[in-house]
Write a structure and sequence with these properties.
The chain is α+β, with helices and mostly antiparallel strands and 192 residues long. The protein contains 5 helices and 8 strands. A 4-stranded antiparallel beta sheet has the order 1-8-2-3. Helix 2 packs parallel to helix 4.
Length: 192
Amino acid sequence: MDSKTAINTVEELRIQMHQDIDLKCDSIIERIKSGESLSESDNCIEKTMPLNSLSTFFKGKKITAVNFSDGREIAVSKWKEAVQIILQDCNSDEVMHNALIDICGKVYGKSRVLFADTPADMVAPIQIDGDMYLETKFDVESLLNVLKNRILDFVGYDYSRISIKFTEPNISINEVIDNESEEPIGFALGGM
């Protein structure tokens, strides 16, 4: 990704994040005004970012769903589940299936095959199809880079309209509300 595209992506994400935070804060303010108590789910602000964002933006985030361009939203709790669902969607297209079969056994990491027709020699494989497995023993950034750069880009799968829904678990609204001290109040935005 060239620097102009990267800067544009960051600016788009900034706008989306501001909108998400504004909506969540407005909702919490209304609930406080109406006397409602806040639940644990209010401790996290849910956001959505396109999958084609820089993989580093997803580090430290807790994934909650994968959104496809056709309107499907599939709830997940782990990044490898999301990768599996995305690869299965790619594999459901006959042309993409054939392209994936062609690269099976040809995508390598430093010391082992990462995408193969057998889970042998993989530490944490996920099954995509009958004889199609992906190694997932990576951190989130590396896993998404393997998915996007080494597989989906290579086979020509358009993931630009897939988005990832996630939470920022480091923002605690209840701590702010319960804070009765005279000290200034601030939010801890993890990874920001």
